[in-house]
Amino acid sequence: MRALQILERIGAIVLLLAIEATQSTAATPCDFKGVSVGDKATPTTLMAAFGIKHFTMSPPGWKSDRKLETAKKYGIISAGEIEDWEIGASCNSDSCRIPFGVSVGNDNTPVSVFVSIPGGQVREIDVQFSEAYWDILTPVLSKKYGDSWRVERDEGFVVTNLEDGKSITTERITMTHRNNGRNSKTKDVCTIRATNIDMIFRHHDPLGALHSELVIKLVSDNF
């Protein structure tokens, strides 16, 4: 009887370990193209991971009068994006921007990437692409991160073109992953959110007037 109880306990432990291993294997990742929230990174290693061979460190950017003129015409955010595209891939000590040169999906859809790396740790990854590819890329997101999303829809979302003041009303879809992701190496946890239209103003860069966005953020343990 004693031997049977021991065997049953061993069997239960083996089953729990198997379940834990399965859950670990199936855990939602926190990465984009192998770069994960929680990883240690430098501008050089980060750009190499995304296949960017040439980039600028701390570029001077536009002069203030040009920034002001462009911001008056297109808005501050769009002016910054136009400047980013002119500068190209660049980094400072806390972040890197890749306006072009990275692609996703079977058709190599172009994306823009921003990565926050304060203190040499990846804290946030933002991936933007043309809204025209939203329906094509959402199945890719579900394949990568799993299909457990909370979906919110706003059918009266207004997007304004600051250049001429005209607006359109469209549907905004926001997908928030129900399960936090996990970096399997560092055990850091992340949130994952995607939306088909990122903001209320029209963009003016080569990605198109409407941007979709994927945002992966580190969940802080400093609490």
What does this molecule look like?
With 223 residues, this protein is of the alpha+beta class. It has one domain. The chain is built from 5 helices and 12 strands. It has helices at 2-25, 43-49, 64-74, 76-87, 134-145, and strands at residues 31-32, 35-36, 56-57, 90-91, 95-104, 109-116, 124-130, 149-160, 167-177, 181-182, 189-195, 211-218. Strands 3, 4, 5, 6, 7, 8, 9, 10, 11 and 12 form a 10-stranded mixed sheet that branches. Strand 6 and strand 7 form a beta hairpin. Helix 3 (64-74) packs across helix 4 (76-87). The protein is globular and about 50 Å long. The termini are far apart.
Quick structural overview:
This protein is of the alpha+beta class and 223 residues long. It contains five helices and twelve strands. It is 30% helix and 33% strand.
List its traits:
223 residues; globular; alpha+beta; ten-stranded mixed β-sheet; two-stranded antiparallel ribbon; disordered N terminus; 5 helices; single chain
How many separate domains make up the residues? 1
What distance lies between the first and last C-alpha atoms, to the nearest angstrom? 49 Å
Strand content: 25-35%
Low-confidence runs (pLDDT<50, min 5 residues)? 3-8, 10-25
User: In this structure, how is the largest beta sheet organized?
Assistant: 10 strands, mixed
Mean pLDDT level: 90
Radius of gyration: 21 Å
Secondary-structure class: alpha+beta
What is the total tally of β strands?
12
Element pattern in H and E = HEEHEHHEEEEHEEEEE
Number of helical regions:
5
Helical fraction equals: 25-40%
Overall geometry comes to globular
